[in-house]
Amino acid sequence: MLMPEDIIAPERESGLRARVILRVIIIGNNVAGTTLAKSLRDADQTVQVDIFTDEDTPYYPRPRLIDFLEGTVPEKDMPFYPLDWYDKNRVALHLDSRVERIDVAGKRVLAAETWHPYDRLALATGSSPFVPPLKGLPKDNVFVLRTLADAKRIKEAASKAEHAVVIGGGLLGLESVRGVCTAFLELRVTILEFSEHLLMRQLDHEGAAILQGWIESTGAEIITKAETEEILGDSSVTGVKLKDGRIIEGDMVIISAGTRSNITLAKEAGLKVNKGVVVDSSLRTSNPDIFALGDVCEYNGQVWAMIPPALDQARVVAKKILGQPGPEYAGTIPSNTLKVSGFDLTSIGVVRSAHEPPEPGFDEIRAISPDGKVYKKFVLKDGRMIGAILLGTKKEAVKVSKLIKESAPVDSFRDRLSDPSYDFA
Asked: Which of 85, 20, 95, 16 is closest to 54 using CA atoms?
């Protein structure tokens, strides 16, 4: 095993030991893998960095898929970095190169029928859309949205369809609706949500009701407590059947039922896995030379599957790989700030849904604007803010996020939190 002094020792004149080049392989060119590659290069100009991916496109942010769907970002503008960024930063990007196997004992990976050696390996294999075991699958015109190739297929189908059914009222499902509705104004859309309201992880009942009203005002139909049983049709979809017997007609279906971590490669290599690849506070797996980060990473029993944790984890892993001093990973406060069907939404920290029983020390303060278009909810525990929902506004998001991250007391302005116009100035 290479020691830190081997990694950072400068090249010597003849007679002294030559520098040992650290070889790092990253599996996955998503936000976690690409941020790790950049962090490694920023911290060390000599480390050898290789990224392997089964996609044929350099890294693009997944949220940009919605912009591509609605036609505001062309395919040529999808990559996050210019195409020469990889060469300039001496990052070897292996496109269309699925890693088939990890040889832990030999410290090498198999891709494109070739073995590639590593000193440190980082698993950023991400996650894949979960497709429930519905009757009637597979069929033409049934889609998931995870890659640029998926978005292209959805866009092509939507250009010819009359009625799209979206199974799942989570963030991705609602964003998919925004994409296709914006691009194809004549397309009818029905959203089927299994739970009692939209965005169960990000919103409480009151906030979800406001959001639902806004989305329905744009023409989409929303059906909650809708459990899909079957995809109807012969070779192509003609609609879906719910478990209560209702039939929703449609000629295309987008399934947005959450994701599952891509753990197969790690599991076959003998690494410890659960919901994700299990790591410690250094983000090391059960093998000390292999790290995991992003959607595939499980720390302290939790898989975040969000962009902010992936960024935090990439910075930690870079330091650990290079043997440089840096903090341990202690988790990330969940935070989402985005537009959902054109509506600003920020959800930070502990949101607490309406069905959760009250607990000692918790308090919730709500504020609704007179026109009903702005909803704020602040979750307090022992006088400190630990979570918030901001719906219909984003101007206070940075200030509120800072309060939550710092676990700051709110006694001095607590009474003003119920005022919808209060902006934490």
From this structure: 95
